[in-house]
Specification:
6 strands, 5 helices, elongated, 180 residues, alpha+beta
Amino acid sequence: LVAVVVRYFALSGFLREDLSKVVAEQQLSLARYAAADIDQGIVQRTKRLQQLAVAAPRHLDPQDPVWTRWLSDHPPEAEGFMGGLVATGLNGDVWAAQGLAQALRPDGTATAAARQGEPYVGTPVPAGEAREPMLPLSVPILSDSGAPFGLLTGLVPLSSQGLMGILLNSQIGSASGGFL
């Protein structure tokens, strides 16, 4: 009888430890998948923003209506930026804006990255009446000589597919299971 009790406690401890390892590996696997999906979503949107910046006008005059016309030819929803698009100078002057991005101004880090010719992934900002978290993505607008002279920023809701949407809109197990 003592041997049975000892085996029970020894075996249950072993199984509990083994189950903990399996669950930890599953959680790590899910986290890696989600991180890869989010990274891919940011990379794809940044590439699209870079394509738009290459096609942007090369006029330095922020009062020129060419910026507003150009931006109206690229509806943010169709381009994957549900929060809107904004074109600004490196000094922060807004040339044209659409959607929730109309209230957005580039921060110093985004401008510094643009001056270096680099894209920038900003910190999520609340936007609109619902104060929905939006991720600003910025890329430099380059002159014909390749020098940065402006910044194109797109806002993407964090809840979008390809960002945090996979985590917010998925469920593993039953609703009453308490796992996730």
